[in-house]
Design a protein that fits this description.
With 433 residues, the chain is an all-alpha fold. It is built from 18 helices and no strands.
Length: 433
Amino acid sequence: MAITVPQGLSRDTAGIAAATRVRWTYIAPTLLVYWIISMFDKSNISLVMADPKFLGEMQLAGQTKLLGWLASSMFISYSLAAPIWGWVVTRYGPRNSIMASLVIWAATCIWSGLSASYGMLLTSRVGLGVGEAACYPVTLALVAHWFALRERGKATSYWWIGTMIGPMLTGLLVTALIVNFGWRGQFYALGVLALILPLPMVWFLVRDRPEQHPAVNPAEIDLAHSGAIEHNDDAPGRILKGVSSVWRNHRFWLMVLAISCNAIFFWGWSIWLPTYLRTARSFTFSTSGYLTFVIYGFAVATILTIGRVSDLMFRRAPFAGLGWASAAVFLMAAALAPNANWSVALMICALCAQQVGISCAEMLMHSVIGTADMAKSQGVRALVTQMTGALSPLMIGYILAYSGGGFVAPFAVLSVAVVISAGCMIALTREGF
């Protein structure tokens, strides 16, 4: 059927108007749900660690070092398995890889609920990390295959808000599950959830590439291919043409360093947030969980806004640098705040600023890596960033153990980390990113 382009309408605009929207109605929502569930399984341990009944049953009260290992062990196995998933995604495709990862998540969550000892629980968290390690390779591969470069800011914000919605809902859902069914019951519930929600969505809605999907028309296929970074004439496209290997691309390694330091900030902060609210600011266990919901809720709105703005500006490095620098300032202000209410308000500001930094960085990754190299590069990126992030909860646990439980010193370390992230963005800003 011939498509008539109205007078005055550009060819690009006409192509977008004529294209089906499978990428937005099928792919993006599935990735969003996938990330929300993944964050449930990552973040729930922070609330379990703050549950007095869990601490008593597992004899972990006051054992901050052992609690730190419960969080860090998952990230260590995550980082080691990520390059393997990068190869699996390249070889077998994102769709098959997502389904395999979901089955692993479900099995390890149920394993966690059955744990009769600290060692058994620790081992289940290691297994969870192996399954979770598929997240970045499959997600960035699908975004690179399905979305034009100038849509990837919005597309990235679409799935990236799952990293905030997950912890946000964890504050409500997991707290309610623990209160009503115990810490074991919430592990069982999350295991079943992975099988009944994201797994069917992937099976029915997702294909590896637009040309494989029965609901996609030729215009949407052309939009994805013509809008790839390889055909971009701005700074990202011009610079990529001169890069012979992703491993020799210094911009990729700057991104890896920045995101690694961000992982130190985020996982150190988020894993210990409920404990901080309960012990340092004297909130109850239930209130700590609900405040976690509120804090992450503000971050969701921030991500949606910055995704649209960055696509319009097409300059992401300056936004990322400013966000990370501001996060350092707000976090230290929260640690030194004279009362609990001011501390919570400044925590909200710190997380929102940090999310400006990392969400812009995730969008920027599509400007420094070509489509063909995306899955394998993100496997290596996850190895480095998650291994680095794995040290953070453990490091905080040790600092708390040796500093008498005060949070000023741990928060200072986290603040320095995102200042380094901001510094990496200065070099990329100078190159036009």
